[in-house]
Each structure stands twice: as structure tokens, then as C-alpha cells.
Design a protein that fits this description.
By secondary structure, this protein is of the alpha/beta class. The chain is built from eleven helices and 13 strands. The longest helix has 23 residues.
Length: 346
């Protein structure tokens, strides 16, 4: 969001306004003016500076935002604000999503109970880096802005940037985290034990929202974690995990519950990373299907055929080249995905 990037330079935010159904993307100067108007009206209603308001939009690309309808509704929305309206906000920002996505996690930091809450939307066009998804996190932790930015980047890299539904992206994606300090914990700073606790908590919240996006993906019936370890470098591990996770042949096999492990091996081989097949081990959950680059037999195939019937499971690849690792979550590719996207605008 162009406007949000400008406001983020002040490193302070107190309000977020989001609309769904219209992405306000590829709309030129009029689109930027509409976003500015949204922020301005909210700022005036809350008596706060306009740069403390962030704007999000999601939906169809290329259509002008009906800004008069939005500004007319802002006073009503503000009047409905309450401590319990988070679920309503999560519901309001959905597009092709079937379910709202919310999270709340807590931990003691410096003797004080710290909470992180969040909402998200996303269902299709999901792929790193973040793609067509919006996620808004809030916390009552007292934390330095630089520490919060670093923790959020770490959390995003381990969650929202590790999911793929269809290998595609769009024009609109945002993750924001606001902190108000009301927990009254000792201020969290980088390099401290308190920071490590907070970062783990933020990763947990982000992973829960990211997985909720996968589970609610367009036409999705299965969610599979792809773990690659034993790589020479982290980049190599990520490349192999991404190639497996985005392979249409792997994803359609997941949907058809066809335990075709050769498709995983094929994806590994075409990942662009130097591979020695004699060092590769592949597991489906706890079943070893490939050892030293060769299948382990019909009995193992029968067992992994049962694994493929599960709604969620793990594909684990050991490249046998080093100690680096990476992970991604992927989904199957179903008939319904094609149906939904063939008629998205109608």
C-alpha cells in the first residue's frame, strides 16, 4: 500500500481501516486520493494525526473505490468499536475466504501478562512474498519500535512467507503490528531474553494465521508441510522446499490422494540445486519412502497411500549435504480452485 509506506516512516500507528471487495489497485492518482481520504476521515473522527492511520484494500483490481459510500459508513463503524468487535472485523475483510481468521496468544514477560491478537484474510493468490493477504496484529506489550520491526520481519519470514496455495500473487498484501504498551512490562529491547520470548510469541501468532489461510485456501482439501533439511545452504533448502510446494503435479497428486512419490523426487531434481540422489531420504510423516535415492518398496507405498488420505501431513526431505533447513506449507489443487477462479469477477 503506497499510502501505508509513507505513514510507516513515522513509525507510529493508532488506527487501521480496511475495505474488501475492491483492491483499489491500478487506479492511479484517483486511487491514491481515495486511500488518503479514507485515512483523513478516520483521523478526523478519532482526533488523531492522519499519518497514524493505515489503510488496507482487497478485492477486484482496476475498479475505482466507491469512496463516498466508504466515508459515509466510517462514523457508523467507529461507533461500533468495542473490545469484542475483533471477530466482526475479521469477518468484514473476507473476499473468497470461507471463514474468518483470528488468533490470540499470551505469555509472561517481565512478570506481566502480554497478549498478541490478530486477524487475517487470504484464500487465493497466496505465495511468498505474502501475496493477496492482509494480516493485522496488535499487542499490549511495551516494546521499542526497532525491536518490534525486527520481530515482525522474523515472524513473517517464518509464517506468511512460508505458505503457498497456488503459486500466484497479486497487487495487495500487508502485515502490520501495533503495540500500545498497556501490559506495563519492562520495555522490550533487542538482544534480551524478553525479546526472545516476544519474538516466539509473535511467530506463534503469525503461524496460526498463516495456516488458517492455507486451510481456507480456494478449493483446498489438504494442507501439507514440506520440510527440507540436510541442505548445504539455507537458500538451497528454501529452493527445494518451494519447488516441491509449488509443483502442480505434487499438488494434484495430493488432491487425488495418489501416493506418487516420484513427483516429489522430480521436483527435487528440477529445483536448480546440485543434487546427489544417492544421499536423498524422503519421508511422508514417519514413513521412509525413499532411501539413498531409491524407493523402499511396495509395503512403504501402501503405507504412504494411507498418509495421503489425511487432511494434514508432512513431507520431509533430507538432502544429505549439510545442516541447513527450511520449510513451507502447501495445499492441494482441486477442481474447485479452477471453478472459483474461472468465475471470480462474475
Amino acid at each position: 500500500m503506497r499510502l501505508d509506506r509513507l505513514h510507516l516512516k513515522r513509525r507510529r500507528g493508532r488506527a487501521i481501516i480496511v475495505n474488501s471487495g475492491n483492491a483499489n489497485a491500478c487506479t492511479g492518482a484517483r486511487g491514491l486520493a481515495a486511500a488518503t481520504t479514507m485515512a483523513t476521515v478516520v483521523a478526523q473522527a478519532l482526533a488523531i494525526p492522519v499519518h497514524e492511520v493505515f489503510v488496507g484494500s482487497t478485492g477486484v483490481i482496476g475498479r475505482e473505490l466507491p469512496i463516498d459510500r466508504i466515508t459515509a459508513g466510517i462514523p457508523t463503524v467507529i461507533a461500533q468499536l468495542s473490545h469484542r468487535s475483533g471477530h466482526q472485523a475479521a469477518q468484514a475483510i473476507l473476499t473468497t475466504d470461507l471463514r474468518p481468521k483470528t488468533v490470540a496468544v499470551r505469555a509472561k514477560i517481565g512478570g506481566k501478562l502480554v497478549t498478541i491478537g490478530g486477524i487475517a484474510k487470504g484464500s487465493g493468490m497466496i505465495h511468498p512474498n505474502m501475496a493477496t493477504m492482509l494480516a493485522y496484529l496488535t499487542t499490549d506489550a511495551a516494546i521499542a519500535p526497532a525491536a518490534l520491526q525486527r520481530a515482525l520481519k522474523s515472524a513473517v519470514d517464518q509464517s506468511f512467507n512460508c505458505i503457498t496455495v497456488d503459486g500466484d500473487t497479486s497487487t495487495n498484501d500487508t502485515v502490520l503490528c501495533l503495540a500500545n504498551g498497556l501490559a506495563k512490562n519492562p520495555p522490550i529491547r533487542q538482544g534480551t531474553s524478553h525479546y526472545r520470548i516476544f519474538e516466539r510469541l509473535l511467530v506463534e501468532a503469525s503461524e496460526q494465521l498463516a495456516l488458517a489461510i492455507c486451510r481456507d485456501g480456494e478449493g483446498v482439501t489438504k494442507v501439507v508441510k514440506v520440510v527440507v533439511h540436510g541442505a548445504a545452504t539455507a537458500t538451497a533448502a528454501k529452493r527445494v522446499a518451494s519447488t516441491i510446494a509449488t509443483s502442480n503435479l505434487v499438488k494434484t497428486a495430493l488432491f487425488g490422494e495418489d501416493a506418487n512419490w516420484g513427483r516429489v523426487m522430480g521436483a527435487i531434481g528440477r529445483s536448480g540445486i546440485p543434487i546427489d540422489p544417492d544421499t536423498i531420504t524422503v519421508r511422508f510423516d514417519d514413513i521412509v519412502m525413499v532411501r539413498r535415492g531409491m524407493g523402499t518398496g511396495l509395503d512403504a507405498e501402501r503405507k504412504i497411500a494411507q498418509v495421503f488420505k489425511r487432511k494434514e501431513f508432512t513431507i520431509s526431505v533430507d538432502l544429505g549435504q549439510g545442516r541447513a533447513q527450511a520449510h513451507m506449507w502447501t495445499t492441494d489443487l482441486s477442481y474447485d480452485y479452477v471453478r472459483i477462479n474461472a468465475s471470480y469477477r462474475s
